[in-house]
Fold these 2 entries.
Entry 1:
Amino acid sequence: MKNLGILLSGRGSNFEAIARNIQAGTIPARIAVVISNKEDAAGLSRANEMGLKSLFLPSKGKDRETYDREVVASLKEYQVDLVCLAGFMRVLSPYFVRAFPGRILNIHPALLPAFPGLDAQKQALDYGVQFTGCTVHVVDEGVDTGPIIRQAVVPIEAGDTVESLSARILTEEHRIYSEAIRLMLSGRVRIEGRRATFEP
Ligand code: GRF
């Protein structure tokens, strides 16, 4: 059984969707630890309620690598095989990325490489695209740049607001994040350069 480590900073709905799929038996893994850099993150309380190992590791006042060394040490302590960023509002240092090469996933609420960074749903609306969506990618040393594992397209509708669009994207996020985790754990993913291919 593989061990997942979840990193979050807020609501934690992606984390909950992953936890539900594990309970339902559709992801062959266990959540070994949930770590938040925010003490009041709703996702952290949920993890607690679910009886999962949950840790608040404060980042305030620490430089990026010092903090990341603490997080990596915890992930190693809990023997994490795959790190899942689920609304973790920090950019990882090269130290972190190199500690888990090809074994960190992130979910982004846009069709990368369009609209990286913050407020991706607002960026898509402001730009006037007709389709946006979400992307699960392997984390490399850039921001929202690593090889893509799964994407889903979400059409923008007349009258959409950031809230209505975000809600429709979120439904797809919950679906594709678990699919991507399943794929990664299956050992069928081959990554060459930027391209991920999947063995049958
Ligand atoms: C999601 O929109 C995700 O794509 C982005 O941050 C948000 C986290 O939401 N990276 P939640 O905390 O999983 O509910």
Entry 2:
Amino acid sequence: MQKEHPAIVLIGFMGCGKSSVGRLLARDLRWPRYDTDELVAKELALSIPEIFALGEEYFREAESAALTSIGGTNPAVIVTGGGIVLRPENVRRLHELGTVIWLQATHAVLQERLARGKYRPLLDTADPAATIAALFAQRHALYQEAADLAIDTSAMSHQEVAQAIRHELRISC
Ligand code: S3P
């Protein structure tokens, strides 16, 4: 299954492996990689936690602007933040850019990965596990609706996920 537009677009919950898998794909395919979090941080010259400190809405505006700034005519790997699917206009843009791939993982696996992962401002709450559970419940259907293709990454290495994506899209190195 391949779309007319050439990008591989990765979506999914925090901790699902989008950044690592995106790096592997871009390296192996020698395609440019665009990461909306990196674009936002660069544009505002602030870290993601610093931007969140100015308000989540401020971050979401910058995130949508970053997505709009990505050109859609060449092959590329596009890595998104976990909340990109919250805005329908973002989802429309993702589909213009390419094939939208949801890196799924079970709730239990995500809890485990996030407990030992990088600092994430949305999880800086009194009960991060409960916050993850609530966000997971809210967002599951949004990822499902947005995805052209879903891959359950729960028991896979990042390299296996990258290979599975290339296999599904019939893209060889
Ligand atoms: C967010 C996920 C983060 C980052 C920001 C908000 C979210 O990206 O965009 O902290 O709303 O799920 P990752 O999915 O790469 O952690």
